[in-house]
Design brief:
This protein is an alpha/beta fold. It has 9 helices and 8 strands.
Length: about 325
């Protein structure tokens, strides 16, 4: 009886088993979906970098929860295309595209001005947008691009929105950081990487700045009803990886994607830790923390340095002219 079964059948079955096992392992390593079904009717949320990757999936989830979501994006064409798909899927018409280029402080100020004309409240601010390992480049104000977008842009945006967040309490700020912050060091004598620029080093510094900003802001917001936490979403396959050298070659990209497929999260799975930090009731009174896999995690020694956090805040104020706006 068994001899009658052809050899190709065994090969086919083995192939399906390997593929099925691969998907099971990938799902396991990627973590669970955030399963809290709370509605966000009439809640106002801003998500930066919302037209692709993690930001797109966060917006999709929030829209299904009936939130009013403002997609703060640089590319309006991509934003509108994404918005239309999410509106059709969620049946939520309260999803909006608004221009906000984090590499331009004028664009950030214009975004905030428009937002305040249209909305009186802001319940959740998700600082998600970012760039990684890009060639040396500068924002419109002459700030190194990774530090300028990942930290300075969100620093200015958040501070300009604090008054609205305070009148909307309880409200939350979520800063999307990275485990890469543990490799980071704030270069006190070369913060803008003018003397030396190494893409990975500059990225790690910007992600460390996210943590230091989170902790210092949490101290300043004590007693206001506004909480702020940072989150590492995991290693996620998104467009943020496009500047890595190996991704510049088709074969290299294929090899990396094939070898790491099981271990790298999809954008949907990458969005889950961000949603947890933004929504979970257990975090109502938690602030100034860093989350990995939905748990408070240790940060680097550099990220615990209060003196550097205060120094970075002072420099960030100076570079954004925050005291003069």
């Amino acid at each position: 009886m068994f001899a009658a079964v052809s050899k190709p059948f065994y090969i086919y079955s083995a192939g399906l088993t390997v593929i099925g096992t691969g998907y099971i392992l990938k799902d396991y390593f990627s973590g669970d979906l955030y399963d809290n079904e709370q509605k966000l009717t009439d809640k106002v949320v801003i998500v930066t970098g919302a037209n692709t990757g993690i930001g797109k999936e966060v917006v999709r989830d929030l829209a299904k929860r009936e939130a009013k979501v403002i997609m703060a994006c640089r590319d309006m064409e991509k934003c509108e295309s994404t918005r239309l798909n999410i509106v059709m899927e969620s049946k939520n018409k309260y999803v909006y595209c608004r221009p906000c280029d984090l590499a331009s402080q004028k664009s950030i100020k214009d975004f905030v001005e428009q937002f305040k004309k249209e909305h009186k409240n802001l319940h959740i601010l998700i600082n998600n947008a970012g760039v990684m390992r890009c060639p040396k480049n500068y924002t419109q104000e002459g700030i190194e691009m990774q530090f300028g977008v990942n930290h300075i842009g969100h620093f200015l945006l958040t501070n300009l929105l604090l008054d609205v967040l305070k009148v909307s309490t309880p409200s939350r700020i979520v800063n999307v950081s990275s485990i890469a912050h543990k490799r980071g060091k704030i270069k006190l004598d070369d913060l803008n990487s003018d003397k030396n620029y190494e893409p990975g080093e500059a990225y790690a510094q910007s992600k460390l700045a996210n943590i230091l900003f989170t902790k210092e802001l949490a101290n300043k917001l004590k007693g206001t009803g506004v909480t702020v936490n940072a989150v590492h979403p995991g290693i996620v396959r998104t467009e943020i990886m496009r500047h890595m050298a190996i991704y510049q070659h088709r074969l290299g990209k294929w090899l990396v994607d094939s070898l790491t497929w099981i271990f790298i999260k999809t954008p949907r799975k990458g969005a889950q830790p961000v949603l947890f930090a933004a929504l979970d009731p257990s975090l109502d009174n938690v602030t100034g923390e860093y989350f990995v896999d939905n748990k408070i995690a240790e940060v680097s020694d550099e990220a615990k340095n209060d003196k550097i956090a205060k120094w970075l805040w002072a420099v960030s104020e100076k570079w954004t002219k925050l005291n003069y706006v």
